[in-house]
Amino acid sequence: MTSKELYKLWLEHAFAAFKLYEQGIMKYAFKIAGERNVLGVMSVESPAVLDTCFAELPLYQKLGDQLHSKFTALRQYEGFASDVSERAGKEARYAEEKSILKKGLFYFLTFTVEYDSAMTQQDLLTVWAEEAKEALDAKKSGVILDLWKVIAERKVLAVVCVQDPAEVDRMSLDLPIMKKWEIKCMWNASQYGR
């Protein structure tokens, strides 16, 4: 396949993905800068819908098993934050917020939360409830485009939009969960373009 044919195929793929966006299935799609990878967030009623959607995408039809997909079950962070707050005795409830789209540098952050075995689960939930409130306030301000909790893991995924890459470091160091010495929060950032 020539470069021109590949670009044409990518364009067809993008139009097909946009149709999924119009149907409310595709929530976000980012081309990863410098890589042949795409990150997408989809909302489906059943995992079987994913098979149907991907079978109809031009890249999959043309390239078949040369394309590899990885799926991670997520839940909206607002629901998780409400559950954590309730378990921490704070009783805060969070409604899903619409994202504020703006221009800037987009980063996909993966936070993995680990904690010292001497720490109680209640201690972890209390700190995480503080974290959730701050994260959702940042979403309201537009710094965080969206965030999700990975099902059955102590992992949070976020898409942030900043003007300067240094803002990502500053933001992560100011998180309540990073300020508590008992909790280790490892994170990975990938830039996804403008």
Automatic annotation (TrEMBL):
Muconolactone isomerase domain segment(s): 2-76, 106-183
Short name of one Pfam family: MIase
Top-level lineage group: Eukaryota
Full protein name: Muconolactone isomerase domain-containing protein
Native organism: Desmophyllum pertusum
